[in-house]
Design a protein that fits this description.
This protein is mainly α. It contains 14 helices and no strands.
Length: 296
């Protein structure tokens, strides 16, 4: 295996390692409590999801959030972003986010957060985050611009978040490169079986918008009459995944192969705690466990 191939495979392998750790912030009761104290509605997760994720950008309006988040319907973004910064400032949201993550990690991981292994994981993943190129990647840059916390468990979560958003920003570039607009991105992903169509309802595109996107993909030969991916559609989505991995791989060259193996070892107890938390949904729109990785 060439070094290039190794780091391309590593980019996807480590996404699977760290995505669940980052995603806890959008489901944790501790985070909901912190945001509720600021005045946000926590009956569902969406009124807090948008300010939690967008706060590192300052106080962006719906247009900027739609651009950066990409796959959400603009109507949904407008509904939740328009009032977000009238409830609390972005600085208050960022502080509440970190307090919630601190409380969450202490509950889920207890004494583990004070171990040498946890501190080593934080040091290694921070090196990757600091090596991640943020040019043209707004969400990664916003998180990279934040001051580093002092405690290892918060350093680890922030580093994981930078890496996660850096990959996500690159994924948007890959979608654009392959000619997929926001709704088409979801329709084509559902077409390859990444998740049931109903799962993508969370992005709140109307049935008319979804069908219009499907019609556009049919006209290009990407999906058939039943909404399933054709060979052309499968190849197109494979190209998206390939470019996503390629754009994420550079940061991982900050670590040697031995260091990456070590990071997996010391991160496994943290990942296990995240997966066993019961907080993460069984199905999601990411395709993290359903989409076959590219064959490099």
């Amino acid at each position: 295996m060439t070094p290039d191939t190794y780091y391309l495979q590593t980019a996807r392998r480590m996404w699977q390692q760290f995505e669940p750790i980052h995603a806890l912030v959008y489901y944790a009761p501790e985070v909901f409590e912190e945001l509720a104290a600021l005045g946000y509605d926590v009956a569902t997760r969406w009124p807090t999801y948008f300010p939690l994720r967008a706060a590192p950008l300052g106080a962006p309006g719906p247009e900027r959030v739609s651009s950066a988040f990409y796959s959400f319907s603009p109507q949904m973004v407008t509904e939740h972003v328009t009032p977000a910064w009238t409830i609390a400032t972005s600085e208050q949201v960022r502080a509440a986010r970190l307090r919630g993550v601190d409380r969450l990690f202490r509950r889920l991981m207890g004494d583990q957060i004070g171990t040498a292994g946890f501190a080593e994981a934080a040091r290694l993943v921070r090196r990757v985050a600091e090596a991640a190129d943020t040019a043209g990647r707004p969400l990664a840059a916003g998180n990279a611009d934040l001051p580093w916390p002092d405690e290892p468990h918060l350093v680890l979560w922030q580093a994981v978040t930078i890496i996660r958003e850096q990959r996500g920003d690159g994924h948007v570039a890959a979608l654009l490169t392959n000619g997929l607009d926001p709704c088409e991105a979801l329709v084509s992903f559902a077409a390859i079986g990444a998740a049931p169509v109903e799962t993508f309802d969370s992005r709140q595109w109307t049935s008319e918008q979804w069908e219009a996107a499907a019609d556009r993909l049919r006209s290009r030969g990407w999906i058939d009459a039943d909404g399933k991916a054709t060979d052309l559609g499968l190849e197109g989505r494979d190209q998206v995944e390939r470019l996503t991995d390629r754009l994420a791989a550079g940061a991982w060259t900050a670590l040697s192969e031995t260091e990456i193996d070590r990071l997996v070892d010391v991160n496994n107890p943290i990942l296990t705690a995240a997966l066993l938390s019961g907080l993460l949904p069984g199905t999601n729109t990411l395709g993290i466990a359903t989409v076959q990785p590219p064959k490099w």
